[in-house]
Amino acid sequence: MLKTLNRIKSVEDLKTLNTDELQVLAKEIRQFLIQSLSRTGGHLASNLGVVELTLALHYIFDSPQDKMIWDVGHQAYVHKILTGRRKGFKTLRKTDGMSGFPKRKESVHDVFETGHSSTSISAALGMAVARDLKGEDSHVIAIIGDGALTGGMAYEAMNNAGRGHSNLIVILNDNEMSISENVGGMSRHLNHLRSNKDYLRAKEDIEGLLHKVPVVGTRLVDVVRKTKEGVKTILVENTLFEEMGFTYLGPIDGHNMSDLIEILNNAKAMEGPVLIHVKTLKGKGYKPAVEQPSAYHGVGPFDYKLGIVPKKSNAYTFSDAFGYAMVSLGEQDDTILGITAAMSDGTGLNHFEKQFPNRFFDVGIAEQHAVTFAAGLAASGFKPVFAVYSSFLQRAYDQVLHDVALQNLPVVFGIDRAGLVGEDGATHQGIFDIAFLSNIPNMTILSVKMPEEMEAALKYAISLHAPVAVRYPRGTVTLDKKYQIDYKNGDLVTLEEGENIVLLATGKMVQQALEVRQALESCGLQVAVVEAPCVVPIDEKGLEDITCQYSCIFTMEDHVLKDGFGAQVAQWMALNSKTNTFYSFAYKTGIVEHGDIPSLLEKEGLSLHHMTTKIIEITKKERA
């Protein structure tokens, strides 16, 4: 029974509890999270690690007057529970259900929407300055993980905050984990702060001495432990954070409720920017998640009693294909290098890392740096391949344009998760890459329709000696091998012949086009299917041929409508005075919320039934 948790209907109820009851509540919340997420899936380990921290924050501060911004946001489940959304966990990350990230339209307690890393301090500083300009009296708290501190935006914000006088609290949630192992100078700096032997030795000596002081000795030890004047601040002077203008407090145990409450109270009374370094254990309270935090970072439904995450499908995914293709090509050419931004496993580059550790580079959560780093390598005669999720490449637009494309440097971008990703929602859908890359000079965009084509596509991309984006979706697509193509050029490829009507598709949507063709055939329509393996530059001769051969042209893509593949075709047709009947199947607004992909396609009018019906409706006049 979750007796204490059942009493919490809102954050006001939390404040009626004493410290012992808060500890009981922490255990019950973990129990609820484990059982609930075992049914729905979601981000488990990260949320188990911040239970006490979230409780203490809501116990000391008054949300939503006091504003909490959760960096990345996947660790905000406890925040959602405490702010009256416990019932929503039945529909977590499902279509029309509760989001797995902070969502402003979902609650007044979600004051800022997050999904990508390293943004919280910037947003929090903006809110703190806005508060000051309005003459209001409230607190603003940013909660950011140690992995997110590898993102340069966090330092830009801290540098700005440290120069000002606005009251701002930054909680550094240090669990020594991001999705991939933390790398770089910040990781080493935090390790130093965690394990400074001089500090630990002196701390013991000073505390031993103070304990001997009659009557007040124990109280003096508590003061030294928990205030800015404590041993840590005295001995570890000039930390990076202090140099940037922050008052540094910590590190403290992020699972000790009493310490958390006291240090948050202290920070609440301080002037200027404050950084509290909190040590937490990812997956705390659930042994399998503690032992395998990466495996339990984002999970599907699982048996929580056995503690077994279901084995991944044996399907040969696009990410697998990319990783193995990189190994194969790397064996043939030792100038090929692999780069990731803290996503080696997710992108499949872990295979390349194992085979060629000296030619593999994980730069941390730093996509902007990754692109310009790749440009420097390319300018020096190497062939770097940067594997990155589509939604994360958005963060490095200027670097792609300014540092790679304008110099026409041979950097290949392996754009994973291009198209819908499903349950993570709008911040993670990879449906903008064609639009933001298509107007960049010297850029070629390839769109792979099946994993078996990956090595040929990657080999072709590298052979172009220019900026090339190879986009491919999450998961897999199963197609008859007869449709497999060899990337020798970027020409349009006719996969099925037809009369009057052609479905011109790219990437994953080729499979949809073939299914639509089959459905239309049962209605007596002979429909052609033509694939565009190269989206940019478009095959103009191939377009000329199909506009002459077919009166009705339908484009299909796993991308936003505006400036996507269909837009490229429509623009060419307009410039060349083509009057064929034309319609483009794509995501209309670009804001596609969370849910399973079949349900999302249904909502977007891109299901098999919707597309078949639309084509019959549009072509009815042609057949009259």
What features would you describe in this structure?
- This protein is of the alpha/beta class and 624 residues long.
- It folds into four domains: 3-190 and 236-291, Rossmann fold; 197-233, no CATH class; 318-471, Rossmann fold; 492-623, Rossmann fold (3-Layer(aba) Sandwich).
- The protein contains 28 helices and 17 strands.
- Strands 7-6-8-9-11-10-15 form a seven-stranded mixed beta sheet, with helices on both faces. Strands 1-2-3-5-4 form a five-stranded parallel beta sheet, sandwiched between helices. A five-stranded mixed beta sheet has the order 12-14-13-16-17, with helices on both faces.
- Helix 19 (367-379) runs parallel beside helix 21 (397-405).
- The radius of gyration is 27 Å and the shape is globular.
- The model is unreliable at 193-203 and 223-237 (pLDDT under 50).
**Uncertain parts:** 193-203, 223-237
Percent range for β-strand residues: 15-25%
The count of DSSP E runs of length 2 or more, i.e. the number of strands, is: 17
The chain-level structural class is alpha/beta
Secondary structure topology:
Elements: H1 3-6, H2 11-14, H3 19-40, H4 45-48, H5 51-60, E1 67-70, H6 77-82, H7 120-134, E2 140-145, H8 152-163, E3 168-174, H9 185-195, H10 197-211, H11 217-226, H12 231-235, H13 240-243, E4 247-253, H14 257-269, E5 273-279, H15 287-291, H16 318-332, E6 336-340, H17 344-347, H18 350-355, E7 360-362, H19 367-379, E8 383-389, H20 390-393, H21 397-405, E9 412-416, H22 433-438, E10 444-447, H23 454-463, E11 468-471, E12 493-496, E13 500-505, H24 509-521, E14 527-531, E15 534-536, H25 540-549, E16 550-560, H26 565-575, E17 581-587, H27 597-603, H28 608-623
Parallel strand pairs: 1-2, 2-3, 3-5, 4-5, 6-7, 6-8, 8-9, 9-11, 10-11, 13-14, 13-16, 16-17
Antiparallel strand pairs: 10-15, 12-14
Helix pairs in contact: 5-14, 7-8, 10-11, 16-23, 19-21, 24-28
